Amino acid sequence: xxxxxxxxxxxxxxxxxxxxxxxxxxxxxxxxxxxxxxxxxxxxxxxxxxxxxxxxxxxxxxxxxxxxxxxxxxxxxxxxxxxxxxxxxxxxxxxxxxxxxxxxxxxxxxxxxxxxxxxxxxxxxxxxxxxxxxxxxxxxxxxxxxxxxxxxxxxxxxxxxxxxxxxxxxxxxxxxxxxxxxxxxxxxxxxxxxxxxxxxxxxxxxxxxxxxxxxxxxxxxxxxxxxxxxxxxxxxxxxxxxxxxxxxxxxxxxxxxxxxxxxxxxxxxxxxxxxxxxxxxxxxxxxxxxxxxxxxxxxxxxxxxxxxxxxxxxxxxxxxxxxxxxxxxxxxxxxxxxxxxxxxxxxxxxxxxxxxxxxxxxxxxxxxxxxxxxxxxxxxxxxxxxxxxxxxxxxxxxxxxxxxxxxxxxxxxxxxxxxxxxxx
Length: 424
Description:
46% of the residues lie in helices and 9% in strands. Strands 1-2 form a two-stranded antiparallel sheet. It is elongated, with a radius of gyration of 45 Å. The protein starts with 22 loop residues before the first helix and ends with a helix.
C-alpha cells in the first residue's frame, strides 16, 4: 500500500500590523500634527461665541442709550453754557413745569421730566421761584436744580430816569412783574390810595395842583433798581417806588445842599442857595422837564438856569417835551399844530409850569431844579437847543438872534434824524 503525503500546513496570511498610540507618539502628533489643538478649540469656542455675543449686546445697548440720552435725557445744546431765567409759579404741576421747560428749550421732552420727578419721589420738593438754568444742563441736572431749594422768590427791576408812567407799565409787563398795563395805569390815577404814601403827592394836593393831570403819580415813581417779590402786586410795586421817592426828597429837598466855593486864599465860602419860591411838587415838575430836555447830566444845571430865568421873567417855557407829553411822541422838530395844541401840559400854550411832571426824574435832575447854574442865571441865558442829535449836546444862548443862528445851523440834522427814526 502507498503512503499518502501529509498536507503541509498553510502559511498564515500576512497580517497588517496596527500600532497603537503610546504616550510618546500622541504627544508628538499633537505637537506637530494639523489638529493638535482640537481639544482646546472645543473649550474656547463657546467662550468666544459668548464674548462676541456680549459685545454685540453691549454695543446695541450703548447705541440705544446714546440715542435716548441725545434725544431725551441729555442737554438740548451742550455748547450753549449761558444761563437763562426760569420761573416756577406757585402751585404749578410737574407736567406744567416740564411743558414750560420744553418751551424755553431747556429740556427735550416734558414727559421724561415729569416721570423722572415722579420716579424719584421729588414732586413735593419742586419749589416755586426763579432759577438760573442753562441749555447745556441735562434733564437730571435740571431736576436736581429745581428741587435743590436754590431758587429766589425775588426779581430785579430797573426804572430808568425820564420814563413816564406808561413806560414803566410797559417795562414791568414785559418783565412779567405785572399782569396788565391797564391795571398799573389805573392805579397811577388813584390819589386816595397813595396820598399817605407820597410826600410829593400830598404836597400837590395841598397846593391844588392835581387838577387836569393825566397820571397823578407821574413824577413820583423814583427811578432806581429794585428787588421785588415775584408775586408782588402792581400796587405793592408802586408803593416801593413812592417810598424810594420819599427818600430822594428827604435828601434833596430837606437835606443840607449847601455848596461852597474856594477863595483865592484857600478858604471856602458858602454859595447862597437860589430861592426859586417853588413848592416841592413844582420842583419835581421842573426836574421832569430838565430830565427830558438834557441828554447829559452835566447840562442839567444849565437847563435849569434857563428855565428859572424864564419863569422869573414870566416867559413861557416853550419846552418841546411838554408839548408832546400827551401824545407820547419824541422828536426834534415839532409841527405848528403840535406847538399850538391846547392842553394843560403844553408850555408853548400855558404860562409857567405844565399841569404836572412829564416823566419821573432822577435825583440829579431834582438837585439841578433846586440848584441851577448861578453863572447862567446871572448871565441871563434864556435859550437852549440841541446840536447834533447823535451827541446829546445842547447849545445855550442869551439872545433870540443867537438862538435862531443855532437853529439854522442844526435844523437839517434834526429833520434827518426824525425822518430816520420814523422809518424804524
